[in-house]
Amino acid sequence: MRIHSTSSMGLPREIPAGSGPVVICGHTFKAGDVLSVPSYTIHRSKEIWGADAEKFVPERWSPERLTARQKAAFIPFSHGPRACVGRNVAEMELLVICATVFRLFEFEMHQDGPMETREGFLRKPLGLQVGVQD
Ligand code: HEM
Predict the structure, then answer these.
(1) CA of 125 to the centre of ligand 1 (A)
(2) Which residues, judged by CB distance below 6 Å to any ligand atom, belong to the binding site of ligand 1?
(3) Which structural domain range is residue 39 located in?
(4) Distance of CA 114 to the CA centre of its chain
(5) Residue 127 lies in a domain
């Protein structure tokens, strides 16, 4: 969910008329400006995750290695009051589905090269060849 965030750029949120200006990370935004939470960029920041930010390294999540900044920067369900309302359902589904599927089946990659994706609110995989065996 870090490397292949379901949502890569978040939903656009407009600062309503009569609000603002707001200052975020030293940048000033006024009413009418449109902001979103860029999960893809934050999840791949070398400044936060280190030089191997692009790599899948499960050990990075061990409590001894994970920094407080990394913990706060893992935001697949976005951040703030308009973050995903389905988070608890989704986390429960992910746990049950992944545990069941990986217990019952063996998977094998049948593709050379990276998985192509289409960017949008949802980061959609365009295809991945895998073999499944029970
Ligand atoms: C792995 C699964 C899921 C992921 C990664 C995910 C992620 C997200 C993200 C990033 C947002 C946008 C927040 C923003 O930037 O403004 C969002 C919004 C939302 N999600 Fe999910 N979501 C997931 C599953 C679900 C499920 C299962 C439901 C419903 C049961 C759901 C309902 C919603 C709704 C209603 C919003 C809009 C919230 C608002 O505009 O206030 N999501 N989700």
Answers:
(1) 18
(2) 6-7, 10-11, 36-37, 76-78, 82-86, 89-90
(3) 13-104
(4) 18
(5) no
Cα–Cα distance, 57 to 40 (Å, whole number): 17
With respect to residue 132, please indicate whether it lies within any of the assigned structural domains: no
Place of tokens 């000033």: 28
Determine the residue of 2, 37, 84 to mutate for testing ligand 1's pocket, defined as the one with the most ligand atoms within 8 A of the Cβ atom. 84
Residue 47 CA to residue 96 CA, distance in Å, equals: 33
Q: What is the pLDDT of residues 90-133, one digit of tens each?
A: 999 999 999 999 999 999 999 888 889 888 888 888 999 999 99
Considering only 29-33, 84-88, 123-127, which range has the smallest mean pLDDT?
Answer: 123-127
Give the model's pLDDT for residue 48: 98
pLDDT of residue 10 exceeding 90, the answer is: no
Give the tens place of pLDDT for each residue, 39-53: 999 999 999 999 999
Minimal-distance CA residue to ligand 1 atom 29: 86
CA angle, residues 81, 28, 42, in degrees to nearest 5: 55
What total number of domains does the chain contain?
1
The residue whose CA has the least distance to atom 36 of ligand 1 is 84
Nearest CA to ligand 1 atom 4: 77
Asked if residue 55 belongs to a domain, the reply is yes
Residue 46 lies in a domain: yes
